[in-house]
Amino acid sequence: MMQGTIQTLHAKQSYGFIRDAEGAKVFFRRNALTPPASFASLAVGMRVAFEPDSGPKGPRTAKITVIPLETPPVLSFEELAAYFQRHAAG
Question: Which of 4, 24, 33, 48 has its CA 20 to 30 A from that of 68?
């Protein structure tokens, strides 16, 4: 699988383009999305993993998976208090 970012979306026609790591534009259709992702949940700039395929007009995708955002770990109240005590002294 390759990775890239969503470059453009055309909601009325249910297609868009992904920019891969090398800068190439790759076409995709709504039916290439893997559940639970839906076309309505996509946004320009989202990171995706995709299986490249070739189409009659150039590169396209056979399957797209949205890469979830990484969220920082949640700190407990005690961990936050200790952090502020360490950094409040100067």
Answer: 24
**Burial (CB count within 10 angstroms: exposed 0-12, middle 13-18, buried 19+), residue 90:** exposed
- Whole-angstrom CA distances from 3 to 13, 24, 50 are 23, 11, 6
Model's pTM, two decimal places?
Answer: 0.71
Rounded distance, CA 41 to CA 50, Å?
A: 17
66/55 Cα distance (integer angstroms):
22
Quote the tokens at residue 29: 């259709």
Q: Which domains does the chain have, with CATH numbers?
A: 2-88 (2.40.50.140)
CA atoms of 51 and 39, how far apart (whole Å): 17
* Single-letter amino acid code for the residue at 20: D
Per-residue pLDDT tens over the stretch 18-48: 999 899 999 999 999 988 888 888 999 999 9
